[in-house]
């Protein structure tokens, strides 16, 4: 059996957050489904070959369609366990024909505004920004090693692409929530915006005429109304009342 050990460093695009990466690494089913050759997976209990440490991990049985050699196709089932870390996840695959794969995914690096921590030398880690580190140990027939490494590389590329899309979706959801809290529906930029009704016209006459003219007209109107009211049938003219004791006017014949 050949034993192969290698480390892969993958810088993450700007905008990807720690929360998104760790949430994805801790989602075991999502990590399993990174490989399109897997056709079935379900939870199982720890198998007899589990080590004392791995006995308490989360175990799955996975069915995979295989094509290791030209013209050789079929399916195979194997067991794998997952163990979450504070900064990543460990995975151990027990497959037939002595195939044994150990993976450890960890999140490293720093975000803008965070202190730059010393990075391990010799692995090609970026000085700034977040990155995924994948440490892999493979034990298998040397004829299968290349095939397994190709599958792992494809799964890594799929993972990074999903992290980018998941980050974009979360950012869009967050922006929508902020806009709703700020009353975006009532802003002119919203497609649902309708301008408020025009306020009632106040002081319209004052807008058409000078202020002093309007007051003078009001005073004149009030004086006229008062004079008309006083000359109503219930009131007698002072001049006519002085010509007759009973206030009756006699017209000449």
How does the SSE layout of this entry go?
Elements: E1 2-11, H1 18-25, H2 28-32, E2 38-44, E3 58-69, E4 72-85, E5 88-94, E6 100-110, E7 129-140, H3 142-181, H4 204-208, H5 211-230, H6 238-241
Antiparallel strand pairs: 1-7, 2-3, 3-4, 4-5, 5-6, 6-7
Please describe what this structure looks like:
This protein has 253 residues and is an alpha+beta fold. The chain has a single domain, classed as START domain (Alpha-D-Glucose-1,6-Bisphosphate, Chain A, domain 4, 2-Layer Sandwich). It has six helices and seven strands; from the N terminus they run E-H-H-E-E-E-E-E-E-H-H-H-H. Strands 1-7-6-5-4-3-2 form a seven-stranded antiparallel sheet. The chain is elongated. The termini are far apart. About 7% of the residues have low confidence. This is DUF7053 domain-containing protein. It comes from Hyaloscypha hepaticicola.
């Amino acid at each position: 059996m050949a034993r192969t050990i290698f480390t892969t460093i993958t810088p993450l695009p700007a905008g990807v957050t720690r929360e998104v990466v760790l949430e994805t690494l801790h989602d075991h089913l999502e990590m399993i489904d990174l490989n399109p050759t897997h056709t079935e997976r379900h939870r199982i209990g720890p198998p007899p070959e589990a080590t004392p440490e791995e006995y308490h991990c989360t175990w799955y049985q996975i069915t995979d369609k295989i094509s290791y050699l030209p013209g050789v196709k079929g399916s195979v089932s194997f067991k794998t366990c997952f163990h979450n870390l504070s900064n990543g996840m460990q995975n151990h695959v027990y497959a037939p024909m002595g195939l044994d794969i150990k993976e450890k995914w960890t999140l490293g690096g720093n975000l803008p505004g965070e202190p730059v921590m010393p990075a391990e030398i010799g692995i090609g880690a970026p000085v700034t920004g977040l990155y995924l580190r994948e440490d892999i140990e493979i034990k298998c027939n040397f004829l299968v090693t290349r095939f397994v490494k190709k599958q792992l590389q494809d799964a890594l590329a799929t993972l990074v692409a999903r992290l980018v899309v998941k980050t974009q979706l979360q950012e869009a959801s967050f922006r929508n929530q902020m806009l709703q809290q700020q009353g975006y529906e009532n802003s002119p930029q919203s497609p649902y915006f309708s301008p408020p009704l025009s306020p009632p016209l106040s002081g319209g006459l004052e807008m058409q005429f000078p202020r002093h003219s309007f007051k003078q007209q009001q005073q004149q109107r009030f004086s006229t109304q008062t004079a008309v009211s006083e000359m109503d049938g219930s009131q007698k003219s002072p001049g006519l009342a002085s010509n007759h004791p009973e206030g009756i006017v006699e017209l000449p014949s």
